[in-house]
């Protein structure tokens, strides 16, 4: 069953595969009761923005879900696909962009396409699973450096440089712009600065950064002022865009190479027209309505500052992603989360062993532009109460709550 599946009979439908119903917002229905929800990546509140809903509906009515019928290379190319790519390239400060059907699949395929056997890859140890799965396909050498450890990265680049000289290959460095679990940022400024000493390309997965980070929302590279030093920039539509799909932007020659070599796109049906039209509208709002991003940061800062004032450990987050790190075992984490959901009507994601080491519980909160300061105040107060119960041993029953068994 695997490390998570072994608990399926106890947690399915509640902690895993839960059903949130109703309109996507700060409050939704879970198991028949309204909950204050902190687990959706709807950062800018675009999921139910009236202009977005109108664009989605009109595009579905006009085009249906079948158009275009076929892969981009064969029969699935349209002016609107090209328009979206051009606008994404301009937005991220790159020469060109290429649309991808899915973020996870897209990143796997980018890595597979970019690396030959003689190439060397260096990557952050906390890279997302899509990066790890892409690297599993690489037949050459790979070096990992501890999360955001720039001293180690330099050492790995020294090793990679010697090896690449022997093999005749190149070096690809991969990191994330915003790390989705911890909320801290990849040290893009320091990594880009290393280009003065080493010859490598930099691929940044900025799934949680696009639309959120930087003055205009162009991502973590813009936040650090080093977007020009990011060779390949990857963004997804599944977070701030509140949709499906992804893109990669970079130099025209590299993007053209990917267009003709990414197997996941060459042999897959083109992104449906309503998703393309919807992404164009979402990008327009991200560019023209900075108030959405300002509201998000107002809520994020209030939440994180409020938690810190109450003594909570929120790690090293520099983004809206808000982890709350607690001490306890898996039954305590599940019992605490059950208490939050049933008695405080707060729905947030819980992470415990085997995903993280034993003795730790992480509650991950995702603030959005549709949350309110009242939501923040209530949540901080509720977390303080459940932490008191955790510290007193109230959740240490030795087993997952009876109602789930």
The proportion of residues forming helix, as a percent range, comes to 40-55%
* Count of DSSP-assigned helices: 15
Q: What would the average pLDDT be, to the nearest integer? A: 94
Give the overall shape, derived from the CA principal axes: globular
Stated plainly, the CATH topology of the largest domain is called Aspartate Aminotransferase, domain 2
Query: How many domains?
Result: 2
Class derived from helix and strand content: alpha/beta
What is the CATH C level class of the largest domain, in words?
Answer: Alpha Beta
Return the CATH architecture of the largest domain: 3-Layer(aba) Sandwich
Please state how the strands of the largest beta sheet are arranged side by side.
Answer: 4-10-9-8-7-5-6
Runs with pLDDT <50, length 5+?
Answer: none
First-last Cα distance: 18 Å
Q: What would you give as the CATH superfamily of the largest domain?
A: Type I PLP-dependent aspartate aminotransferase-like (Major domain)
**Whole-angstrom Rg:** 22 Å
Could you state the order of secondary-structure elements as H and E? HHEEEHHEHEHEHEHEHEEHHHHEHEEEH
How many beta-strand segments? Answer: 14
* Biggest β-sheet description: 7 strands, mixed
Tell me what the structure shows.
By secondary structure, this protein is an alpha/beta fold. The protein has 2 domains: 2-37 and 290-404, Aspartate Aminotransferase, domain 1, CATH 3.90.1150.10; 50-288, Type I PLP-dependent aspartate aminotransferase-like (Major domain) (Aspartate Aminotransferase, domain 2, 3-Layer(aba) Sandwich). Helix content is 41%, strand content 16%. The chain is built from 15 helices and 14 strands. The chain has helices at residues 2-5, 8-11, 50-63, 79-91, 103-114, 129-136, 150-167, 188-193, 220-224, 252-259, 263-266, 273-288, 290-309, 330-343, 373-392; strands spanning 20-21, 27-30, 33-37, 96-100, 120-124, 141-145, 171-176, 201-205, 232-236, 246-250, 322-327, 346-347, 349-351, 360-365. The strands form 3 sheets. A 7-stranded mixed beta sheet has the order 4-10-9-8-7-5-6, sandwiched between helices. Strands 1-2-3-12 form a 4-stranded mixed beta sheet, with helices on one face. Helix 9 links the parallel strand 8 (201-205) and strand 9 (232-236). The radius of gyration is 22 Å and the shape is globular. 45% of the residues are buried. The mean pLDDT is 94.
């Amino acid at each position: 069953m695997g490390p998570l599946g072994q608990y399926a009979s106890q947690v399915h439908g509640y902690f895993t595969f839960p059903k949130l119903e109703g309109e996507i917002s700060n409050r939704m229905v879970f198991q028949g009761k309204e909950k204050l929800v902190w687990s959706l990546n709807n950062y800018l509140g675009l999921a139910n923005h009236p202009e977005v809903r109108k664009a989605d509906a009109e595009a579905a009515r006009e085009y249906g879900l079948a158009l275009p019928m076929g892969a981009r290379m064969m029969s699935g190319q349209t002016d609107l696909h090209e328009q979206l790519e051009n606008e994404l390239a301009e937005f991220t400060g790159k020469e060109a962009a290429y649309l991808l059907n899915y973020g996870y699949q897209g990143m796997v395929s980018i890595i597979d396409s970019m690396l030959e056997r003689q190439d060397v890859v260096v990557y952050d140890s906390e890279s997302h699973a899509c990066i790890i799965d892409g690297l599993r396909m690489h037949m050459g050498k790979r070096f990992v450096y501890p999360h955001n450890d720039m001293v180690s990265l330099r050492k790995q680049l020294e090793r990679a440089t010697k090896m690449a000289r022997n093999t005749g290959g190149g070096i690809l460095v991969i990191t994330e712009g915003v790390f989705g679990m911890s909320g801290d940022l990849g040290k893009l400024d320091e990594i880009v600065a290393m280009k003065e000493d080493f010859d490598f390309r930099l691929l940044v997965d900025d799934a949680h950064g696009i639309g959120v980070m930087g003055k205009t929302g162009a991502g973590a590279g813009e936040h650090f002022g080093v977007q020009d030093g990011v060779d390949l920039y990857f963004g997804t539509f599944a977070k701030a865009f509140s949709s499906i799909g992804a893109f990669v932007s970079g130099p025209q020659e590299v993007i053209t190479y990917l267009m003709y070599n990414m197997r996941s796109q060459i042999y897959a049906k083109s992104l449906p027209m309503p998703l393309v039209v919807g992404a164009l509208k979402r990008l327009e709002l991200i560019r023209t309505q900075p108030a959405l991003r300002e509201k998000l940061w107002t809520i994020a800062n209030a939440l994180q500052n409020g938690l810190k004032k109450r003594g909570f450990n929120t790690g090293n987050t520099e983004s809206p992603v808000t982890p709350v790190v607690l001490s306890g075992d898996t039954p305590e984490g599940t019992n605490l989360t059950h208490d939050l959901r049933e008695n405080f009507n707060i729905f947030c994601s819980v992470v415990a062993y085997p995903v993280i080491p034993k003795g730790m519980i992480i509650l991950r909160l995702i603030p959005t532009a549709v949350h309110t300061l009242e939501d923040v105040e209530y949540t901080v107060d509720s977390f303080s109460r459940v932490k008191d119960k955790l510290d007193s041993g109230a959740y240490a029953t030795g087993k997952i709550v009876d109602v789930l068994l």
